[in-house]
Design brief:
This protein is mainly alpha-helical. The chain has one domain. It is built from five helices and two strands; from the N terminus they run αααβααβ. The chain is elongated. It starts with a helix and ends with a strand. It comes from Streptomyces ortus. This is RDD family protein. It is a multi-pass membrane protein. Its main location: membrane.
Amino acid sequence: MSRTLASLVDAFVVAGLGLAARLGAGALRLVVTGPPFRLPDPPAWLSGLCGWTIAVLYLAGSWVMTGSTVGDRLLGLRVTARSGRPLGVLRALSRAALCLVFPLGLLWIPVSGHRASVHDLVLATAVRHHGR
């Protein structure tokens, strides 16, 4: 349950980052072309690609730098390699991409004896509570 709540918090953070990016692009357009202020209206495929990229970079960057996203920190979680060491850049990027491409992998957690998602099993990662 705590991983689901952390993911929900992180989805709001990513949405906020996406909104900030759109506002920044609108402000840049205003500076370059002048009034009126307008938000960019990119094609759906470009919006999707940008959102996916923001999410991957947010997740992977958080796991590499601190081991925790904002949602993880709020719920006392840390993502590590199975050995307990911090994630490297490639493993963090792979885990972030896999989490976004296959979110249903989280459904394996209640079945797993180690409370591991499919992402954890494939990439030899673990989600631990800070006190453990």
